[in-house]
Design a protein that fits this description.
Radius of gyration: 13 Å
Shape: globular
Number of helices: 4
Number of strands: 5
Order of helices and strands: EEHEHEHEH
Distance between the termini: 18 Å
């Protein structure tokens, strides 16, 4: 997906292990499977829960924003950039994450899947 030059974007392969990852998918998507260690704030709750991100995100680090395919995360990335946050959209989202062989887990740590 291409969201234009205004959205800073990285590929799944550019996200290093241990990078700060913000998952903005909805609860049912998260429950099916997510990247281990990601912070989950659904897009539908994002503005109300913005403080959770500012508390959890590294002060001088980058926020990698991910959703299923890259559309919702692009919206959140643009919002964060406007707030002065170093944020990038993970192009292809969790679909590409899973295709790339990156781990997808459930809350109890068992293997998950992307819906």
């Amino acid at each position: 997906m291409n969201f234009g030059a205004g959205v800073p974007t990285v590929q799944v392969t550019d996200v290093k292990d241990g990078a700060f990852l913000l998952d903005v998918r909805e609860d049912d998507e998260w429950q099916a499977g997510h990247a281990e260690g990601a912070l989950h704030i659904p897009l539908s709750d994002f503005v109300a829960r913005y403080g959770e991100l500012t508390e959890a995100a590294p002060q001088d680090g980058r926020v990698h924003v991910i959703c299923r395919s890259g559309g919702r995360s692009a919206q959140v990335t643009m919002y964060l950039v406007q707030q002065g946050v170093d944020a990038v959209n993970v192009d292809g989202g969790m679909q590409d994450w899973e295709r790339a062989g990156r781990p997808v887990v459930t809350d109890d740590g068992t293997p998950g899947f992307v819906v």
